[in-house]
Specification:
Shape: globular
Helix content: under 10%
Order of helices and strands: EEEEEEEEEEHEEEEEEEE
Largest sheet: 10 strands, mixed
Number of strands: 18
């Protein structure tokens, strides 16, 4: 596994840059996440996954190059029904095609919003895992950690990798209820730990 300023090699392909998936409100309590381009989509979020701004939404392969997909600032809800990507390892999509639909009105989302608005009620300000996967705090065994105790982070800062289905995904800081900038107070998980969506990864202070 290698990393660089422009991307990192995974499974013989190279990540270039992040692409933003636009969230479009189509009805009360319903938001569609639409593809930012043409290519082969893989790594779709499972039904019931909580999607927040900057949440990882899989990769779009364009001419052999993988582009990380991340939700825009309006995305907030739970993935509905069967994810399109679940039917194929690599699903062909076009510009503007619906990748998945979010339910923004369910009680679980409200509960998560309330916790995000008052993080101290659950023991402190924390940054949580956006997906299930295996946690890695550095790009390679001999590489320095992305962040450590005392590190300053801001929205978009890479804080760790999550290994999902044998593919490594960069996780960026940010989301509802989190400040634009913060300091890492504690790293709450060890390298190789298996996480579920919502598991705390870092304790923060402002």
């Amino acid at each position: 596994m290698t990393t660089g300023n422009r991307g990192h090699a995974l499974d013989g392909r190279v990540f270039r840059r992040k692409l933003v998936v636009k969230a479009v409100k189509v009805a009360e309590g319903r938001v569609e996440l639409r593809s930012p381009g043409v290519g082969l989509w893989r790594g779709a979020p499972a039904p019931g996954t909580l999607v927040l701004p900057q949440s990882f939404l899989g990769e779009l392969e364009v001419l052999g190059v993988l582009h990380e997909l991340h939700a825009d600032e309006h995305a907030h809800g739970l993935v509905l029904g069967e994810s399109h990507g679940a039917r194929a390892a690599r699903l062909p999509v076009g510009q503007g095609d619906v990748l998945c639909t979010l339910d923004t009105s369910v009680g679980a989302v409200v509960a998560i919003e309330e916790e995000a608005e008052h993080p101290w009620a659950s023991g402190g300000l924390v940054f949580r895992s956006p997906s299930s996967g295996r946690f890695f705090g550095r790009a390679a065994p001999d590489a320095p950690p992305f962040v450590g105790v005392g590190s300053e982070v801001e929205q978009g800062t890479t804080v760790c990798l999550l290994e999902i289905m044998k593919t490594f995904h960069r996780i960026s800081f940010g989301g509802p209820g989190l400040p634009r900038r913060a300091r890492i107070k504690a790293v709450l998980v060890e390298d190789g730990a298996d996480l579920e969506p919502g598991d705390p990864m870092f304790e923060l202070e402002v």
